[in-house]
Target: Outer membrane protein beta-barrel domain-containing protein
Amino acid sequence: MKKLNAVHGAFIFLTILLPALVSQNVCAQMDSTQRPQPNRCNLAVGAGQFGDDWGISAELTTPTFWNKALALRFKGSTYWLECYKARQDHWAPYRMVSVSLVYKFRITADAGTYVAYVEAGPFTILPDERYSTQKHVEGFSAAVGAELFFRQCPRVPVCYFLALGASACKASADTLDGEPRYGEGLTFVNGFRFYF
Model:
């Protein structure tokens, strides 16, 4: 397992711990009339890890349906292949598109509104030709997550979200020695979600 270096530590602090601490303080100051309604359409931007690879993502989630609990989430991501960087000393990206079914559990407490969710669905990886002869690779992922609302704007509630999950697919960097696998294993994403 790789050692956690200073860059990874700074990334974790700035994208996970700091927003979580701010969200707790601001949520505690909300009264019941300010609490957001997390059943609307939302747009999210995030960063995280997909197996060994770091990347960024954008998500669009539909308004909830079926008893205000289910939604569809469409996601586009770009990740940078860590094993290519280690061998070639250059970054090589791969793109990923996915659609997932999301089931939300809304929790309202005196301290604020929180949303826990479970999501699962298929994804497609579009690898770079520098390390793969595959045009696209399909897989499946599932995750559990939480949303912590930390700012209430008149029209657009904003929350910090994080999710931890796992993925499975048969993607391999088949032009590199040993044909290392990627796009599978543990996943983590966090970022900000804007409700409309």
Notes: The first strand starts at residue 42 and ends at 50.
